[in-house]
Amino acid sequence: MNIDAIIAAFGNVLTPVNLVGLIFGVAVGIVVGALPGLSVNMGIALLFPLTFSFQGIGGILMLLGVYCGAIYGGSISAILLKTPGTPASAATTIDGYPMATKYAQPGRALGLSTFASTFGGIFSAICLMIFSPLLASVALQFSKPEYFALAMFGISIITSVSSGSVLKGLMGGLIGLIIATIGVDAMSGKIRMTFGTTYLLSGLSFVPVLIGLFAFSQVLTSIEEAYGEEYVKHDIKIKRVFPTFADLKEVIVTVVRSSVIGTFIGCVPGTGGDIASFISYDQAKRWSRHKEKFGDGAPEGICAPEAGNNSVSGGAMIPMLTLGIPGDGATAIMLGALMVQGMQPGPLLFENQAPQVYTIFLGLLAANFFMGLFGFSLIRAFVQVVNVPKKYLMPLIFVMTFVGSYAYNNSITDVFVMVGFGFLGYFLNKLEFSMSAIVIGIILGSMAEANFRGALMMSDGSMMIFLTHPICAVFLLISLISLLSPVLGPMVKKLRGKKG
Predict the structure, then answer these.
(1) 0.85 cut: is pTM over it?
(2) Are the beta carbons of 116 and 307 closer than 8 angstroms?
(3) Where are the alpha helices (DSSP H) in 164-244?
(4) How far apart are CA 218 and CA 401, in angstroms?
């Protein structure tokens, strides 16, 4: 363990500017998560440009705060309105809403949700601290063929992050890969797809593309959905928030189990909080002695999905930091943020920039701590977020997308790029394409290309190098299975059905 790096990391997190940024990120994340129609990815993309206002790693800490806060914030509207603020909180509505309405205990439901979310987040952050250095030490043995195979494995998860058609997910990934090739080729010096403009020589700027795909497109969608919608104010009264000892005793085993499940699922690229929350809920019901209470305000039914989806955050960071493979859409954006800040995720990150890595560890831990603190002390204030009219909220976000895109490079061209990708994202969303698949293609495309060429140079052009390196061959095989899983899965089920 690098004691000097840990001490430096404590100093980074406790620097007043960085600490304020982290707390601000948590607060904004809770608000974004609590507002139906917004998302974790949108919140991170929207605040991405602010990261350049910080020196060092402070901006990354702010994004970690948004990440943790938004996952938890989704439970607020799920419990109070039966409308999950984020997809990860969909399972929370099953028991959260009945407890809040049928039994008139919204404070109790929110308290249980806050406790489970905080426990799950802190549990996963501790797992991140323990397992990431171990995995990175193994990954230090990797060379260019292994890195190419890792990049291909990361690209292959687009079939998992595509909620609808797998074909559309693959097409989205292909769009991202094409975008990644724009600009001057680093190895040959050839100019590719710049269309005669100097702006594209260094490729498309990642930040305006990100803001356009996730934030501007969502604003357009929200404006469309809000047209003609009548404003309804919700009168919500919160009494006791902190769970009673009896409640804690009843749910603690469920919370621990769900935290383990969520952390493990987070480690598997292409999964996410929505999968973790439903699996955790299912396991809680399976092991409960009071199965009949589920769906009617069961405390375990609230805690299981919330512990599960919040523990995904630390789990998803493990492959992202150690291997450079994003676990979900949010960590794909985080991966881009680290690269823009000059940090290349992978095993060498732990060797070359150990203080920054430990700062991320401690930052995630602190973000979950402040999330719990806000949840128990300021929940009455955050609850009022559900009453904010969209006619005031959307123009504010609309302006922020323009300001953020321009501030990145002080370039009006970046604004045009953002608007263009915003409309592209809007229509692709309508057609049920995955924005996360596009981002993964953009980020990992250049990594795959560079390491593919490097591996061929190592072998004098022989493709056998990808099969003679065992780790590389295994990852390529897993990538192939991952890509074909949507086709193979139904075939296996049919065969089982025929045998049965």
Answers:
(1) no
(2) yes
(3) 166-180, 206-211, 217-226
(4) 11
The letter for the amino acid at 424 is L
The torsion angle over the Cα atoms of residues 336, 339, 345 and 348, rounded to 10 degrees, is 170
The tokens for 269 are 């690229």
In degrees and rounded to multiples of 5, residue 191 shows phi and psi of -95, 130
Two tokens, residue 337: 């943020």
Query: Can you name the residues that pair with 35 across neighbouring β-strands?
Result: none
Residue bearing tokens 């930040």: 207
Contacts of 494 (CB under 8 A, 6+ apart): none
Mean pLDDT by 10-residue block, N- to C-terminus, for the chain (500 residues)?
A: 80 91 93 80 84 83 92 87 78 88 85 94 92 80 83 75 69 86 80 83 82 84 73 67 89 94 80 78 87 88 92 87 78 82 82 87 94 88 73 81 82 90 90 80 82 88 88 86 72 64
Residue 448, token pair as written in the block: 């795959």
DSSP H helical segments within 140-244, as ranges?
144-156, 158-161, 166-180, 206-211, 217-226
Tokens standing for 445? 């495309």
**Measured distance CA(41)–CA(163) in Å, rounded:** 15
